[in-house]
Structures are given as structure tokens and as C-alpha cells.
From TrEMBL:
Descriptive protein name: Putative pre-16S rRNA nuclease
PANTHER family given in the database record: POLYNUCLEOTIDYL TRANSFERASE, RIBONUCLEASE H-LIKE SUPERFAMILY PROTEIN
Biological process (GO), any one: rRNA 5'-end processing
Pfam families documented for this protein: RuvX (PF03652)
Length: 152
């Protein structure tokens, strides 16, 4: 069984305050936490927000072949206001990192699962808030990688 085509992918969990980032190994098997970025809500409309610029730098640094962004859908599979905001974020990211593709994937419950797994490991409170976005990005990317492997 083979996975997605070779190359590092970045997984992104877009929140209102922070952006969690994870990366895959070049073989597309395992996602690991990378960094948490602060959302830049102060950039001028025609300027690239600092979080998007930092993501672009990570894409270049890790020679990522694709960025997988979690799309928050509700439990019924509908796209609410959060999904609309994430789609807009992903479109801006795609413009900044072109020609590297940006893929949206269902991230239903990723933060809940990440929080639960961290709590099971004894990571709670402020320590959990500091890494939950990265852990959610890992959940998003790992689910996507696993789905790609199942397809082939």
C-alpha cells in the first residue's frame, strides 16, 4: 500500500486567535507538531498578514508540496460562518504560496480529539492551550494522510 505522492505536507488548523501547524514526513505516513502562529488581524487589507507570511516561510523551509487546511464543518456536515472564514483564509494562503496547492479537508472534532488526547497525557490548562492548535493540526493532517493511503 502506498501513500500520497512523496513530499512534505503541512497541516493547518486555523483558529480565531492562533494557527496550529503540523508537518508530515516525506513519505506521507506520520504527522508531527511544528509550531503555533499568532493570527494577524491588524494587517492592512492589501498587505499579507504576518501569519500568512510565516506559513509561506514554513512552506519554503520544509519544501512542502501541499498544504492541508482543516475546514470546520458542523456535525451535520454543513458549512457555517467558521467554514466561510477558513475558506477565505485558505484562498489568501493559496495566493501567497502559489504554485503550492492548498487543500481543504473536513476537520470535524479535531480540536476536541486533540484536547482529549493531551488531557490523557496529563497536559492541561495553560500548557494545553499552548499546544492544542498544533495537536489539532496533527489530527487534521494525520486524518488526511490516512485517507489518502486508504484511497490507493
Amino acid at each position: 500500500m502506498t501513500g500520497p505522492s512523496r513530499g512534505v505536507r503541512l497541516g493547518v488548523d486555523v483558529g480565531q486567535v492562533r494557527v496550529g501547524v503540523a508537518r508530515s514526513d516525506p513519505h506521507g505516513v506520520l504527522a508531527t507538531p511544528l509550531v503555533t502562529l499568532a493570527r494577524d488581524r491588524t494587517a492592512a487589507p492589501d498587505a499579507v498578514p504576518s501569519d500568512l507570511a510565516e506559513l509561506a516561510a514554513l512552506v519554503a523551509e520544509h519544501e512542502a508540496v501541499e498544504v492541508v487546511v482543516g475546514l470546520p464543518v458542523d456535525l451535520a456536515g454543513r458549512h457555517g460562518p467558521a467554514a466561510v472564514q477558513v475558506k477565505a483564509y485558505a484562498e489568501r494562503l493559496a495566493d501567497v504560496i502559489a504554485p503550492v496547492p492548498v487543500t481543504l479537508t473536513d476537520e470535524r472534532m479535531s480540536t476536541v480529539v486533540a484536547s482529549r488526547r493531551l488531557a490523557e497525557r496529563g497536559v492541561r490548562g495553560k500548557r494545553q492551550r499552548a499546544v492544542v492548535d498544533q495537536a489539532a493540526a496533527v489530527e487534521i493532517l494525520q486524518s488526511w494522510l490516512d485517507a489518502q493511503r486508504r484511497r490507493t
